[in-house]
From TrEMBL, chain A:
UniProt record similarity statement: Belongs to the CDC50/LEM3 family.
Protein name: Cell cycle control protein
Record keyword Signal present: no
Keywords, ordered alphabetically: Membrane, Transmembrane, Transmembrane helix
Domain of life: Eukaryota
Chief localization: membrane
A GO CC annotation given for this chain: Golgi apparatus
From TrEMBL, chain B:
Domain P-type ATPase N-terminal: 25-89
Biological processes, Gene Ontology terms: Golgi organization; phospholipid translocation
Pfam families with a match to the protein in the record: Cation_ATPase, PhoLip_ATPase_C, PhoLip_ATPase_N
Protein name as it appears in the record: Phospholipid-transporting ATPase
SUPFAM superfamilies, sorted: Calcium ATPase, transduction domain A, Calcium ATPase, transmembrane domain M, HAD-like, Metal cation-transporting ATPase, ATP-binding domain N
Domain named P-type ATPase C-terminal: residues: 850-1104
PANTHER family reported for this sequence: PHOSPHOLIPID-TRANSPORTING ATPASE, PROBABLE PHOSPHOLIPID-TRANSPORTING ATPASE
Chain residues that bind Mg(2+): D400, T402, D824, D828
Binding-site list for ATP: D400, K401, T402, E504, F545, K568, R602, T682, G683, D684, R798, K804, N827, D828
Region (Disordered): 1174-1194
Topology with respect to the bilayer: Multi-pass membrane protein
Keywords (A to Z) from UniProt: ATP-binding, Lipid transport, Magnesium, Membrane, Metal-binding, Nucleotide-binding, Translocase, Transmembrane, Transmembrane helix, Transport
Length: 353, 1194
């Protein structure tokens, strides 16, 4: 390994006297000393405490209402109905009521939640075709094999959108009604668009290029997923621009949840009209549910969630409490460390080699 | 060793099957071709263009790790199983394979180049009666070729004739064995007579019958049949490929072995690989990890079965099984899917990284200026790059003495002539004055032939010579005549001596400077310049040195016709053979001898005897008879010598200093402080060895006792050993405590470990070769080991090379400790190869030790730097690396494990597939390399200051199975934090605009970011030495992570490679969320702070030596290096005779006369040396070399 260099002379093979080769690179050798460790621990305890308190206050300022409607009240009949597969095509709707004691201030978000629905199974997650959803003609007509068995219908027609994810789309729909004091029930306006990531709506999902065609023509030669009632280009009958692959309910559903219990955004309160300009007023509400999605197969539950948000997101108490507990633990540790250091290391006797 | 021997034996057997004997005829290609001997083309390259890919891949896939990943890759191609895209395995695998392939390819290209260059060299070949230039590769066995001065020898040749008188050629064997001095080869007279007569050479049809190709450089056996006469051939008549012709105008040779059959080629490439204990541990761990992986996957498979039964079966409406799959099969498939997902516990890049780290640390050894020896321009060299960390774990050092502890430079220091001592300086009051650099030297400029390098301080000897003192003249005449040194006088007046042993050289040089210049010799004469006057002595006989006789004599006739026998030898031997008249002088001389021995000098006693013509004639007659006798030749000669070497007249004694190398005592003291035990294994005599032991501080006056084991029977040895042991450790059990355990792969290797026993006080043990031979026998070896290991210092003297290796093996076998052997000569090779680590001193005794060593440098004192600095750092770095590497991979993998409980055991990964692909290769590779190449706990000067820092390595404290388990627990904790904190924080939350953030992709990004930040923080905690490079690597890697992530999650990547980069927008949409960063901060705190607290508490409660020293470093400035203590004088008297323990040049000096009998004599010697007990015979390994060397003296 001795390198032969162009040098000659009596010291030709003398190694270079560089800091790197002689392992003398200037370096910083930090050490765990009481002067650094103890203040650091106390500081961290303080930071965590402040963060915890701040976050807790923030979270406390939000409001949240969860309502499990799987078998609630009138919905239990639909629940029973859905047990039987043969009734799948029959419509069933029910209404649940609830009331809020305090008004929801600010933007109010309406979620539907599922429990025990595994969107995170490996085969389930893969069972979609990103190329198809991007509106590529090739993929539209030839869905990837990952979509099996929902790639083609029994006649061999390609399914659009293919795959288990799209096929299993959550198809309950909700109408939220406000029963204000003395007034007739009035529908709470929900914005059903603007509920997806910008990147999903604009980049990840695209319709096939229509070029003077209608959307239905663009999807010609494909068929709807077997569990669907209407084809992909008729998902939103009211808003023609919210159809096809860029239907926002579809996009929201396609963003698979990481865990079996999840909630997905259904709509945002439209604060254009009174009395909703400052949020949802206190009072009683009802939700008309078109109860389609069967959950009893997999022992799942369905719920709706109404919540307001802060910069920190929804009403999630975990982080504030975790910070507070961590702060306590760190403080405890810091005290232990201080005691240990005081008893053993203060005079430096333990360091005598 | 055993395996090597058996392997060698097997090789030999195979070779024998192939070719039992080689038969060839000169100038008869037809005849030779019928035997299908290979021609002279060589091929050291392994591949060609077409075979490179398949062969290299085959080689690489023979490594377990690579094969495993290939298997994984194929597993991933099965769609039902594949839980990860193919590229997650393929990319790292291809990268690792291609790095190795590129390295192999460049190596091979270089080999091709050198092969081509060598094969296309031109040489003159005698074809069809004329000389033609031919390429080397076209030379065939049986060809006669002509070589010229400074040419490389083309193939293994039988020397036929040469331009020099007596058909001699001089060769340099540097390429063969690394020795740069010239060696002499001599052709048979019968072939030599042909000279350069082309016709005669073309007509030469000798038939050579010889041994098949083998790798023994020192032996050649064969016969040449010419005109129905058979001549014996030996190594002296063979020129080996790789040598260079020197000082010889031309020579002719007959090709015996060509190309791959040559001894050079047979010798190359058959190195046995040493592996470190960490390597073994790593293999075991990897195996454990495989087991653990299988276990985890089984858990996952069972989990999947349960899940499928309870949940999956009812989820079928949304996700039906694939065709042909049912619940049972699904759990079986999930087992394999998890094998893929969790494969990261078996680190593919581990082996590659380990190699890189070792290479880096080897470079640091090569680059170290403090291990560079300017005097002969020798840097330290890590010849093996795979053993570095073991340098930090050495427990036993086995050292040679001559040339290792000592310089093997002899200087003529003192002498006693006729009862008058010279060499010491006294001041006016009669006190001895210490000789220093400044002491005035004797001026020899009056003598034009004097050696300018010779230094002597006592002017009185010069005065004595000027006065013409006859005894003094006789003294130096003897030194100038009685030796076997060869002289070389390239220019008039510039004499060079080639001495077989350095002490002879020193004596002849002394005589030269004091006016008796040995000038030249022929087999019959010796020319000496006596005080400026040329005198030619007739050399009548040389009574050579050997270990029994311990003396050598010459019988010379002066020009005046006076016949004198000059003799020099060991005091005890000569004293027995002196004339009674010398008794008085003897007494005085004995006093001087004791003084010299006390100073650790090597002494010789000189005597002479005048002979009369008649007796000599009669003696010569008998000598001739004896030396031609077929039976009992040795004995008869010995008797004759005995007869003539008696009643001699004492002249005086000489004292030669065997100089210790610089800093040897200090080094030994440092190493002893580092709790390294040093055993000296030397071929020297007991007294010499003991003296050196004292002078280099191994044996100390303050030691409680020094045991000397010198019994000649097994019982005696046992008793002496037991007595010593009982004295050292009276309460110790009679039977050694042997711990039996199993280790190694599959726990197949049984180990027996003898426990160390506590001894209070320091003891020394000196054991001689005879006793050692008994001690090494099966029934005594444990006793020997026990006793020896209780002693601080062990010195074994009169040890054969085989015994050296046996001692090393013994300690290796029963101590399970890492051993290091250091030596400089060919006799140390066996020991160097046997020990875990062999260190060669590139010094005086040629290069053989270096060539078989793992590390080499020029001075013994560099050993402390190699061990205490480089070794310690290497060990530390390797351990840190392994701990951290396992930590980061386990942490990474365990998160998948926890996630399985949420995703129905469906083998869904937590992270993005690209992250999995790049995690080991890109995101974490450089920081950990930075840590494991640059880290140092304290710098080199502190390492020297506290040699105790070395002991954690010896006790294997930093990385062991326990440390590994600790690592796993730590990663388990970290992975729990890393999974459950993000889970809890995310599962029910949304972005600040109400949109999704609990989706899989965002969670994956969060989890992987947390992981990466935590493992990098952990690395920061582990790093003790923050250079700019480390900073750059750590922050650079983090930056690279974010850069790569944003790139891969960008619109462009998605639109181009839609299916490969589905994470579009995830980074943008979730990394701008405060709660994501708050989660990252919390996980980091929870992972890191407990580690900090834990370490801090440990430092406070139970600080290790490292902590203590580091604490000191922080507090105090480095104390100035301790002043060098002056070399200590030994007050105790010890007799100190020593002489090179091997046969002299004698028979060669007079080889003309004894030429024909030499082979016979040699053979006798060889058969006897097979027994390790043959102490008094020349040692096997030495003889090999000397035989070659001997020849140069012609």
């Amino acid at each position: 390994m001795a390198k032969t260099k162009g040098k000659s002379g009596p010291l030709a093979r003398r190694p270079d006297n560089s800091a790197f080769k002689q392992q003398r690179l200037p370096a910083w050798s930090p050490m765990l000393t009481a002067n650094t460790v103890l203040p650091f621990f106390y500081l961290m305890a303080l930071i965590c405490l402040l963060l915890g308190v701040w976050l807790l206050l923030t979270v406390q300022s939000t409001q949240e209402m969860k309502l499990d409607y799987t078998e609630a009240g009138a919905c239990s009949k639909c629940f029973e109905k859905r047990k039987n597969v043969s009734n799948a095509a029959q419509a069933c709707s029910c209404t649940v009521v609830f009331s809020t004691e305090k008004a929801f201030k600010g933007d109010v978000f309406f979620y539907y939640g599922l429990r025990n629905f595994h969107q995170n199974l490996r085969r389930y997650m893969k069972s979609k075709d990103d190329g198809q959803m991007l509106g590529r003609r090739m993929n539209l007509k030839n869905p990837t094999s990952y979509c099996e068995p929902y790639a083609r219908d029994p006649n061999g027609l390609p399914i659009a959108p293919c795959g288990a994810v799209a096929n299993s789309i959550f198809n309950d729909s909700f109408i939220l009604k406000y029963h204000g004091a003395g007034v007739a029930a009035r529908r709470v306006p929900l914005l059903r668009t603007g509920i997806t990531w910008y990147t999903d709506k604009n980049i990840k999902f695209r319709n096939p290029s229509t070029e003077n065609q209608t959307l239905a023509e663009a999807f010609e030669g494909t068929t709807k997923p077997p569990y669907w009632r209407s084809p992909v280009y008729e998902l939103d009958v009211r808003d023609p621009l919210n159809n096809g692959f860029i239907n926002e309910d579809l996009i929201v559903w396609m963003r698979e949840a990481a865990f079996p219990n999840f909630k997905k955004l259904y709509g945002v309160l439209d604060r254009a009209e009174e009395p909703f300009t400052s949020g949802l007023p206190a009072g009683s509400y009802s939700i008309d549910i078109s109860y389609n999605f069967p959950v009893q197969y997999f022992r799942g539950r369905k719920e709706v969630v109404l919540t307001t948000l802060t910069w920190f997101g929804g009403q999630n108490h975990f982080l504030p409490i975790a910070y507070l507990i961590t702060s306590g633990l760190i403080f405890l540790l810091a005290v232990v460390l201080t005691v240990v250091w005081w008893k053993f290391g203060k005079d430096g006797k333990n360091m005598e080699a | 060793m055993g395996s090597v021997v058996s392997c060698f034996r097997r090789l030999c057997v195979e070779e024998k099957k192939k070719e039992e004997e080689r038969l060839l005829r000169a100038n008869d290609r037809q005849f030779n071709l019928s035997y299908h001997y290979v021609n002279n083309a060589i091929r050291t390259s392994k591949y060609n263009i077409f075979t490179f890919l398949p062969l290299n891949l085959f080689e690489q896939f023979r490594r377990l790790a690579n094969a495993y990943f290939l298997f994984l890759f194929f597993l991933q191609l099965i769609p039902q199983v594949s839980s990860l895209s193919w590229y997650t395995t393929a990319v790292p695998l291809v990268l690792v394979l291609s790095i190795t392939a590129v390295k192999d390819a460049t190596d091979d290209i270089n080999r091709h180049k050198s092969d081509n260059q060598v094969n296309n060299r031109k040489v003159e070949v005698l074809i069809d009666g004329e000389l033609r230039k031919e390429k080397w590769m076209n030379v065939q066995v049986g060809d006669i070729i002509r070589l010229e001065n400074n040419q490389f020898v083309t193939a293994d040749l039988l020397l036929l004739s040469s331009s020099e008188p007596l058909n001699l050629v001089y060769v340099e064997t540097a390429e063969l064995d690394g020795e740069t001095n010239l060696k002499v080869k001599q052709a048979l007279t019968v072939t030599g007579e042909m000279g350069d007569n082309i016709d005669e050479l073309a007509a030469f049809d000798g038939e050579v019958r010889c041994e098949p190709p083998n790798n023994r450089l020192d032996k050649f056996k064969g016969t040449l049949t010419l005109k129905e006469q058979t001549y014996a051939l030996d190594n002296d008549k063979v020129l080996l490929r790789g040598c260079t012709l020197r000082n010889t105008e031309w020579c002719f040779g007959l090709v015996i072995f060509g190309g791959p059959d040559t001894k050079l080629m047979q010798n190359s490439g058959k190195t046995t690989f040493k592996r470190t204990s960490i390597d073994h541990l790593m293999n075991v761990l990897v195996l454990c990890i495989f087991g653990f992986l299988a276990f985890m996957c089984s858990v996952m498979a069972i989990g999947n079965a349960i899940w499928e039964a309870r949940e999956g079966s009812v989820f079928l409406a949304f996700l039906p099984y694939e065709a042909g799959v049912n619940a049972t099969l699904s759990s079986f498939l999930s087992f394999w899917s998890y094998i893929i997902v969790l494969n990261t516990v078996v680190p593919i890049s581990l082996y590659v990284s380990v190699e890189i780290i070792r290479l880096g640390n080897s470079f640091f050894i090569d680059w170290d200026r403090k291990m560079y020896y300017p005097k002969n321009d020798t840097p330290a060299q890590a010849r093996t790059t795979t053993l570095n960390e073991e340098l930090g774990q050495i427990k036993y050092i086995f050292s040679d003495k001559t040339g290792t502890l000592t310089q093997n430079i002899m200087t003529f220091n003192k002498c006693s002539i006729n009862g008058q001592a010279y060499g010491d300086l006294y001041d006016f009051s009669g006190q001895r004055v210490e000789i220093t650099e400044k002491t005035q030297k004797v001026d020899f400029s009056r003598n034009p032939l004097a050696d300018p390098k010779f230094v002597f301080h006592d002017h009185s000897l010069q005065e004595t010579m000027k006065e013409g003192n006859p005894e003094a003249e006789a003294f130096f005449r003897l030194l100038a005549l009685c030796h076997t040194v060869m002289s070389e006088e390239k220019k008039e007046g510039e004499l060079y001596y080639q001495a077989q042993s350095p002490d002879e050289g020193a004596l002849v040089t002394a005589a030269r400077n004091f006016g008796f210049v040995f000038r030249s010799r022929t087999p019959e004469t010796i020319t000496v310049m006596e005080m400026g006057r040329q005198v030619v002595y007739e050399l009548v006989a040389v009574l050579d040195f050997n270990n029994v006789r311990k003396r050598m004599s010459v019988i010379v006739r002066s020009p005046q016709g006076k016949i004198t026998l000059f003799c020099k030898g060991a005091d005890t031997i000569i004293y027995e053979r002196l004339h009674p008249s010398c008794d008085k002088l003897k007494k005085v001389t004995t006093g001087h001898l004791n003084e010299y021995a006390g100073d650790g000098l090597r002494t010789l006693v000189l005597a002479y005897k005048n002979l009369d013509e008649g007796y000599l004639e009669e003696w010569r007659q008998r000598h001739h008879e004896a030396s031609t006798a077929m039976e009992g030749r040795e004995e008869r000669l010995d008797q004759l010598y005995e007869e003539i070497e008696k009643d001699m007249v004492l002249l005086g004694a000489s004292a030669v200093e065997d100089k210790l190398q610089d800093g040897v005592p200090q080094t030994i003291e440092q190493l002893a402080k580092a709790d390294i035990k040093i055993w000296v294994l030397t071929g020297d005599k007991q007294e010499t060895a003991e003296n050196i032991g004292y002078s280099c501080n191994m044996l100390r006056e303050e030691m409680k006792d020094i045991f000397i084991v010198a019994a000649n029977t097994a019982e005696g040895v046992k008793e002496e050993l037991q007595n010593a042991r009982r004295k050292m450790c009276p309460e110790g059990a009679e039977e050694p405590v042997v711990m039996r355990s199993r280790a190694g792969l599959f726990w197949l290797k049984k180990t027996e470990t003898v426990q160390d026993e506590k001894v209070d006080g320091e003891y020394g043990l000196v054991i001689n070769g005879h006793s050692l031979a008994f001690g090494l026998e099966k029934d005594l070896e444990l006793e020997l080991l026990r006793t020896a290991c209780m002693c601080q210092t062990v010195i074994c003297c009169r040890v054969t090379p085989l015994q050296k290796a046996q001692v090393v093996e013994l300690v290796k076998k029963y101590k399970q400790a890492i051993t290091l052997a250091i030596g400089d000569g060919a006799n140390d090779v066996s020991m160097i190869k046997a020990a875990h680590i062999g260190v060669g001193i590139s010094g005086q005794e040629g290069m053989q030790a270096v060539l078989s060593s793992d590390f080499s440098f020029a001075q013994f004192r560099y050993l402390q730097r190699l061990l205490l600095v480089h070794g310690r750092w290497s060990y530390l770095r390797m351990c840190k690396f392994l701990c951290y590497f396992f930590y980061k991979n386990f942490t990474f993998t365990f998160v998948h494990f926890w996630y399985a409980f949420f995703c129905g055991f469906s083998a869904q990964t937590v992270y993005d597939e690209w992250f999995i692909t790049l995690y080991n290769l890109v995101y974490t590779s450089l920081p950990v390399l930075g840590l494991s190449i640059f880290d140092q706990d304290v710098n080199d000067r502190w390492s020297f200051q506290y040699p105790q820092l070395y002991s954690p390595g010896q006790q294997n404290m930093y990385f062991s199975k326990r440390a590994f388990v600790r690592c796993m627990m730590h990663s388990c904790y970290s992975s729990l934090i890393l999974f459950f904190i993000p889970w809890a924080a995310m599962h029910d939350t949304v972005r600040d605009d109400g949109k999704d953030i609990a989706d899989y992709q965002s969670f994956a990004l969060l989890a992987q970011t947390c992981l990466l930040i935590v493992v990098n923080m952990q690395l920061c905690l582990d790093t003790h030495y923050w250079t700019a490079i480390n900073q750059f690597f750590v922050w650079g890697s983090l930056a690279a992570y974010f850069a790569i992530t944003f790139t891969m999650y960008s619109n462009g990547m998605f639109l181009i490679f839609t299916s490969a980069f589905p994470f579009i927008g995830t980074a943008r949409n979730s990394l701008n969320q405060p709660n994501v960063w708050l989660t990252i901060f919390l996980t980091t705190l929870l992972c890191i702070l407990p580690v900090v607290a834990f370490r801090f508490i440990f430092i406070q409660l139970r600080p290790t030596i490292n902590d203590k020293v580091r604490h000191k470093v922080g507090k105090e400035a480095l104390p100035a290096p301790a002043p060098r203590r002056p070399a200590r004088r030994i007050s105790t008297r010890r007799s100190g005779y020593a002489f090179s323990h091997s046969q002299g040049y004698g028979d060669l000096v007079t080889s003309r006369k004894f030429l024909l009998k030499r082979p016979l004599k040699r053979q006798v010697l060889f058969t006897q040396t097979d027994s390790p007990l043959a102490q008094n015979k020349p040692q096997h390994y030495r003889t090999i070399r000397e035989e070659v060397e001997e020849s140069q003296s012609l």
